[in-house]
Amino acid sequence: MTSQTAPVEAQEHHDIRPIRKAAMWVFLGSEAMFFGSMIATFLLYRNNTADGPGSEIFDIPFTSASSFVLLMSSLTMVLAHNAFEKRDGRGTRIWLAATALLGITFLAGQIYEFTEFVDKGLTLSTSSFGSSFYMLTGFHGAHVAIGIVMLLAMFFLSLEGRLHEERGLNVELVGLYWHFVDIVWIVIFTVVYLLQA
Amino acid sequence: MTQTAHRAHPTPAMYWGIALFLAVVTALEVAVPYIPALDPVRVPLLLIMAVIKFGTVVAFFMHLRYDKKLYRTLFLFGVIGAIPLFLVVLLTMHAF
Q1: Which residues of B, range 28-47, sit inside 8 Å of A by Cβ?
Q2: ipTM
């Protein structure tokens, strides 16, 4: 009896994936508080433009297209996870690369948007509106950039056959992070852009 | 059923369907500010659509609907905790 149960117990003892996943959810919960504070700060200072540009300089059609790109990257991410679970290495790499590409497209759009706003006179130090806007969207962009690095790391690990679910970075945890970046943008897009339009 | 029991995750076809749904909601979101007739309900309408998108991604793409209740609790603690906390701060500072 003992000899039959021991391996199962040992296997359960060494499987730390549920713990890592729980830790990731705790991290994402704390990130929700982090972005919540930034969104609250933006709402507080949204009308404090100090005679500089305000939300009227937002280009809603352009930001809508960027939002759509990021939203679709959540689809490609979940398809990468699905392919990984089916041990489909090629499919995993295709969808990981697609997700990274969509993320890079979103970031490129954000950089373009920032340069446009700076040209129109909105900088980090123009007003409280500018500071809170750039801090919020800039930190979100930094999260996207970190996500892209992790996606590309997994892509190359997969190419070398070193992508394992049991240790290090894994598709599920990076996927959770990526989807979180997407849901934060869902809130930013509504609160910062659409509600101020 | 134990707490660790999982329901089957959606199929790739379902993921595409969910993405289509999200794209349609996004298109509606973008249309709302351009429709003057919707001005009186613009704010609640946009917030409701954002909540729908947020919930759909969390439930289906992040699999929270299918995973352990523990994960849901950990995440919702942060999200639901943040809303009243910052709402109180904003109301205290007369942001609205």
Answers
A1: 29-30, 32-33, 42-43, 46-47
A2: 0.86
Question: B66 in contact with A at a CB cutoff of 8 Å?
Answer: no
Give the integer Cα–Cα distance in Å for A117 and A120.
5
Q: How far does the CA of residue A165 sit from the closest CA of chain B (Å)?
A: 17
pTM of the model: 0.89
In a domain, A166, yes or no: yes
Question: Among A100, A175, A25, A19, which Cα is nearest to B60's?
Answer: A175
| Tens of pLDDT, residues A19-75 | 888 899 999 988 988 998 899 899 989 999 988 899 899 999 999 999 999 999 999
User: What total number of domains does chain A contain?
Assistant: 1
Higher pLDDT: A181 or B8? It is A181
Please report, for the domain that includes residue A24, its CATH number: 1.20.120.80
C-alpha torsion sign, points A38, A44, A49, A54: positive
Range of the domain at A128: 17-194
**Span A117-176, pLDDT tens digits:** 999 999 999 999 999 999 999 999 999 999 999 999 999 999 988 887 766 568 999 999
Question: Is A158 inside any structural domain?
Answer: yes
Residue of B nearest to A26 (CA): B74
pLDDT at A99: 98
Contact with chain B for residue A30, Cβ under 8 A: yes
Give CA–CA dist B22/B51, Å, rounded. Answer: 11
- Find the residue in B nearest to A197 (Cα): B33
User: Using CA atoms, how far apart are residues B41 and B50, in angstroms rounded to an integer?
Assistant: 14
Look at residue A98 and tell me if it is in a domain.
Answer: yes
pLDDT for B87: 81
Closest Cα in chain A, distance from residue B37 (Å): 15
